[in-house]
Amino acid sequence: MKEQDAPGPERQEAPMDPSLWRGLSQPRLSRRQVLASAGTGAGAMGLAAFLAACGVKGNAAPSGSSPAGGVGTEAWWAKQQLHHTVNFANWPYYLDVLNGKHPSLQHFEQTSGIQVNYTEPINDNVSFYAKIRPSLAAQQYTGFDIIVMTNNTPNALGYLLQNHWLIPLDQSMMKNFYKNAGPLVKNPAWDRGNKYTMAWQSGYTTVAYNSSVIKNAGNSVDILFDKKYAGKIGMMSDVYELGSIGMLALGIDPATSTESDWAKAAKKLQQQKSDGIVRAYYDQSYIGHFKNGDTVVTQAWSGDIFQANLNSKYADLKMMVPGQGMMFWTDNMCIPLYAQNPKDAMTVMDYYYDPQAQAVVEYYNDYVCPVPAAKEVLLNPTGWAQQALKDLKPEIGLPTSVTANAPTVFPTEEYLKQARNYRTYKNAEEVKAWNDLFLPITQGA
User: Which residues pair with 101 in a beta bridge?
Assistant: First the structure.
């Protein structure tokens, strides 16, 4: 994982979109490294076998099905009691922190009386799934009441759902969520009705270009296939990202795509390679090649481009909002089956849909915020959040208004309209079919 740079004098001299220095893709690089390695060699081919060995069946779970024994039903939830403790597992550097404490969690504990044991054991989805799977298979507590899993990886969240290893949420305890959740995370394609998940944070994968070389880039992913820039175009070795942008180029929605669609995208991407358009298929190292001029157009994670713009030397590197859309990923809070403190977990999850709590989180994170109303809190802080934001300011080094006005944190209508969801695999066979099509493209290049 690439470490975040600490705010320095240069950053404080010219306040900008906070994503420029913290980055939407940070600290997601820990996850991206795993996905990149899965796209280069045996990793991707072994993934389907790994998931199959983990007990993933060949058929998807019946629609609307739930864990056995009535777990997650209204009657089951009515019997649950608060235990005033909860174990919350998240990714590193993903929650506001000051002097080793989490201001938003401190406020929650003081007002709810629930002690949160917050840990950061998730460095990628697949290995974390492997870690908790034995307990779930043995019908035992994983040690966690809340976990945060991503919707765009091959596809640990999907397998948790398929194996009925998540507890359906208590919809009656989601008052903040239904009042404040934004359109990108309410009723998402990967979990209709938010039956099992509530978004934690989100981000974009898109196209970037060097404006000093390309004066009129337009707003289409077609630029990645333009022979004019042959040998100067970077594509991602992450086969999930590669296949998704191939479908966008064909006007296909990846979320609803079929195997025949994947084949069409693979054909287009293979032709792009055969025509000598692609310089290389990169992991997270793509940003270095983009900076030094090896490439002039590239697939990109939005935060990397914003972060590069901090240095005036890289001010010409621009992010595009393509007309075909940008891939939109989301890390989701969910409750694993056999959780010991599910009602406490629901209380925490819904708390983070309070605009004040989200404002504090976003001031630190600068990811895509799931609560649009947090913007007003950042512009005009009140209540406990006012003090928390004031305390965090020396650490962040930017006014709260900068976060509030960043379209990469609070998306504009253009960003909202262009967000595209990833395909959610139904089974291990689909994972293999995808890899069989897209992995060979990245090899021998």
Answer: 98
CATH of span 204-328+423-443: 3.40.190.10
Mean pLDDT of 408-437: 88
On whether the CB atoms of residues 299 and 207 are closer than 8 A, the answer is: yes
For CATH 3.40.190.10, list the domain ranges present in the chain: 68-202+329-411, 204-328+423-443
Please report, in angstroms and rounded to a whole number, the separation of the first and last CA atoms in the chain. Answer: 25
| 0.90 surpassed by pTM | no
What burial letters (b/e) apply to 39-53, b meaning 16+ CB within 10 Å?
bbeebbeebbebbbe
Instruction: Report the percent of the chain where pLDDT is more than 90.
Output: 64
State pLDDT tens for residues 199-241: 999 988 899 999 999 999 999 999 999 999 999 999 999 888 9
Distance (Å, whole) CA 254 – CA 245: 8
CATH T-level topology, domain 68-202+329-411: D-Maltodextrin-Binding Protein; domain 2 (3.40.190)
- Cα–Cα nearest to 107, from 380, 393, 369, 389: 389
